[in-house]
Specification:
Blueprint: H1 16-26, H2 41-55, E1 64-67, H3 69-81, E2 87-92, H4 98-104, E3 108-113, H5 123-129, E4 134-140, H6 152-169, E5 174-178, E6 201-206, H7 207-210, E7 219-222, H8 230-243, H9 251-260, H10 267-284, E8 296-300, H11 306-314, E9 321-322, E10 331-335, H12 340-357
The chain binds pyridoxal-5'-phosphate.
Length: about 350
């Protein structure tokens, strides 16, 4: 088995509580238990309450649209507000599935780069990329792959920028906030959503990270209560949920959702793993910026050719993603979802690899 994994996949058995929740939800309580399920009321309510608690924003039940994970929530958001030919801005390094989702919706990807020292959004670059065809800016915090959580001041400045740019181009620019990791936050930090600052935000969430169960497809798209015209958007979104191929979670997951909302994976265990890697790699000479959330460490490659470097790790059975895959060469991404044993076994390989490449 590989020593460190590429994807944010589990490498330990799922917790009993997760399994028991699904087992309970499997027992039919009426003859409609496995009937077609659209936006199930109990699931929507549980999701809205949980979002209210997390963000201190009074999300309403009817503004939660259940989806098969974050993928479908992002696709649904794009198709709700953008017309073919519209431009969608997002920042590199990105989650690499934005581009296909944008292209599949008939939209045009426009890429800018984050500040590669702080991993913060480059607001000047975003502003410069806006044209009269801009319809959406995607923001992902906590970020995959950098682990950065954008601070509230930055989100407030982004909101001002988008408000002014929308007025300038005389067309509303929407923000799609990809919050797949909004429960995976370290050091007791408080996560802030762009939805707290910019009312024209569509919030995409996935339970796949919170329970480290990405094969169980459940998530949602949420509109904040301050979103103008959200009543008019409702039939468009529910129509799309069907037209995109019934992108609702399975009945079983919808029944389980109120209980699933009550727990998450052990984030402190992930944090300990982060600390172990940050300390050990730092001691070897890697320049690691500790992630504030998400499942990843995005580390500057000790040599400019990140592919050559990740290959030298792969020869030692340590598998990480090179930065070229995120369109930011010179970095590599480690996944914290590797188990503790895998992390420990990887450390000598990281040491040998950096020594091999030292002048
Ligand atoms: C930033 C980001 N957004 C969205 C997703 C999609 O999540 P899911 O597979 O649970 O739909 C992922 C999954 O890796 C992700 O990393």
């Amino acid at each position: 088995m590989s020593v460190i994994s590429l994807f944010g996949n589990p490498h330990q058995m799922p917790p009993d509580r997760y399994v028991n929740t699904l087992r309970d939800a499997l027992t039919p309580k009426n003859d409609q238990w496995f009937a077609y399920q659209a936006n199930g009321e109990a699931a929507r309510e549980a999701a809205a309450e949980s979002l209210q608690r997390l963000l201190d924003v009074p999300f309403r039940t009817e503004d939660i649209y259940l989806t098969t994970g974050g993928f479908a929530a992002i696709a649904l958001a794009l198709k709700t507000v953008a017309d073919p030919g519209d431009e969608v801005i997002y920042s590199l390094p990105p989650w690499f599935l934005y581009e296909p989702l944008i292209l599949e919706a008939g939209l045009v990807p426009v890429k800018v780069t984050v500040d590669t020292t702080t991993f913060d959004l480059d607001l000047d670059a975003i502003e410069a990329a806006i044209t009269e065809r801009t319809r959406v800016v995607i923001v992902n915090s906590p970020n995959n792959p950098t682990g950065r959580i954008y601070p509230p001041e930055l989100l407030a400045r982004l909101a001002d920028l988008l408000e002014a740019a929308s007025a300038r181009i005389r067309r509303r620019i929407y923000l799609v906030s990809d919050e797949a990791y909004n429960r995976i936050v370290f050091d007791g930090l408080r996560f802030h959503s762009p939805a707290e600052f910019y009312p024209h935000t569509l919030l995409a969430y996935s339970y796949g990270k919170t329970h480290l169960s990405p094969g169980q497809r459940v998530g949602y798209l949420a509109l904040p209560p301050a979103m103008p015209h959200r009543d008019a958007m409702r039939p468009a979104i529910t129509g799309l949920q069907v037209a995109m191929g019934w992108v609702y979670p399975n009945a079983l997951l919808q029944h389980a959702l109120p209980e699933l909302e009550k727990f998450s994976i052990d984030v402190s265990q992930l944090q300990r793993r982060r600390d172990r890697l940050v300390d050990a790699l730092g001691g070897m000479g890697y320049r690691v910026q500790p992630p504030e959330g998400s499942f990843y460490l995005y580390v500057p490659s000790p040599v400019p050719d990140d592919e050559a470097f990740t290959e030298s790790l792969a020869r030692r059975d340590v598998f990480v993603f090179p930065g070229v895959l995120f369109e930011t060469p010179g970095f590599f991404r480690i996944s914290l979802t590797a188990n503790d044993d895998m992390v420990e076994r990887s450390l000598p390989a990281f040491k040998e690899a950096i020594e091999e490449h030292r002048p």
